[in-house]
Amino acid sequence: MEEIPTPSKEQPHHPLDDLIRTDRIPHIWCPGCGIGTVFSACLAALKASGINLQKTVMVSGIGCSGRAAGYVKLDSFHTTHGRAIPFATGLKLANPELNIVVFSGDGDLFAIGGNHFIHAARRNMDITVICVNNLNYGMTGGQVAATTPYLAKSTTTPAGNPETPFNLPLMAYACGATYVARWTMLHIRDLTDSITEALCKKGFSFIEALSPCPVNYGRRNKQKPLDMLKLYQEKAIIKNDADPATLDIDFEKGIILGKFIDLDRPTFIENYDKIYRPSRLQENVPELNS
Amino acid sequence: MEFWRVPLDADTIQVSLGIVHILEDRCKGCGYCIEYCPKQALEFSANFNQKGYHPPVVIKPEECVNCHYCEIICPEFAIFSVESPQTTKPGQSETNHAI
């Protein structure tokens, strides 16, 4: 065997270093937290999609995943709690040329920000929403969230969650999203491909990424970070085009992953321009068609 | 990788070879890269980094096939691999293990 060249002494650069604010790394996310992986998948997808990164904005809300906006070396917004989508909607309407990525958590997007999600999907705003679902309110200490599975333990439900969680892909589909997918942080290549596809797609795209929260959710449910990944590996059923009504998260019967919805519908801006700015459409202003 | 039968074209397949770079001070010791390396080329180091975690260390550098899985699963941007200018001779590493 020929000798393997040894790595050079000078500090090498990570391939994604040009998209992150390296002075803020290491980030605040706990050891074993999956947000970092989903974030790096998102950055890889931004690179792979070939969109103009000078005209790309990342918007996040509040929560652990909300920190992503502070780590990305693009124009970014760290917005108020639950309001990532309204900020994104405003950005898109003010400057339709921009590509908008909303990167936030389940608590931010679906609990306090639930209504905004519903209406942005209904209007078919041309944005990409990536939801890191860690099944609880991680940053505030592991309280029960709208996505905590039935009977799972949390700070506020020590004997098990009595509520039924949201089925996020069903909700996105029912509200009118044109692209809906779900992956876990273990299915990184699929997740990256899905985000790439969603970024290039016109209309409201929604991607749910399941991610472990070892410090809060995992600790109370007796799951070490690696146990959680093993669970994803064992229980994942990849089924593209599955019926969204069957996608509830139940680790007993298995979690269905895949790309569920991919359809075309006129976006809000297209419909608005048709009725209120017909002259601009005839002039064929390039940014309106992008 | 272990085969129960050596593939017929094993001697024509060029296996790429990777060099793993580890940015030790970014690591938080989650161990995902170590657990999910398909070639088991990594292990926890005995040393501590600045933050007091054990970063991974490459124990079998010749096994890395540059699949980038450690790079994409790492939540910390702390590990990546690049293609080595050398490649293994066709089929070399595969047949050795199959026997």
Uncertain runs of chain B are 93-99
Structural class of chain A: alpha/beta
Q: What's the CATH architecture of chain A? A: 3-Layer(aba) Sandwich
Regarding quaternary structure, what we see is heterodimer
The helix-strand sequence of chain B is EHEEHEH
Give a nutshell description of this structure.
The complex is a heterodimer of chains A (about 290) and B (about 100). With about 290 residues, chain A is of the alpha/beta class.
General description of the model:
By secondary structure, chain A is an alpha/beta fold. Chain A has one domain (33-289): Thiamin diphosphate (ThDP)-binding fold, Pyr/PP domains (Rossmann fold). Helices cover 36% and strands 16% of the residues of chain A. Chain A has helices at 35-49, 68-71, 84-94, 106-112, 114-123, 168-175, 188-200, 214-220, 225-235, 268-276, 278-282, 286-289; strands at 56-60, 75-78, 99-105, 128-133, 179-184, 205-210, 236-238, 255-262. Chain A has an eight-stranded mixed sheet with strand order 2-1-3-4-6-5-8-7, with helices on both faces. In chain A, helix 7 (188-200) links the parallel strand 5 (179-184) and strand 6. In chain A, helix 1 (35-49) crosses helix 7 and helix 5 packs across helix 6 (168-175). The longest helix of chain A is centred in the N-terminal third of the chain and has 15 residues, at 35-49. The mean pLDDT of chain A is 91. Helix content of chain B is 17%, strand content 16%. Chain B has two domains: 1-15 and 88-99, no CATH class; 18-83, Alpha-Beta Plaits, CATH 3.30.70. Chain B is of the alpha+beta class and 99 residues long. Chain B has helices at 32-36, 69-73, 92-98; strands at residues 18-22, 42-44, 56-58, 79-83. In chain B, the strands form two sheets. In chain B, strands 1-4 form a two-stranded antiparallel sheet. Chain B has a two-stranded antiparallel sheet with strand order 2-3. The termini of chain B are close together.
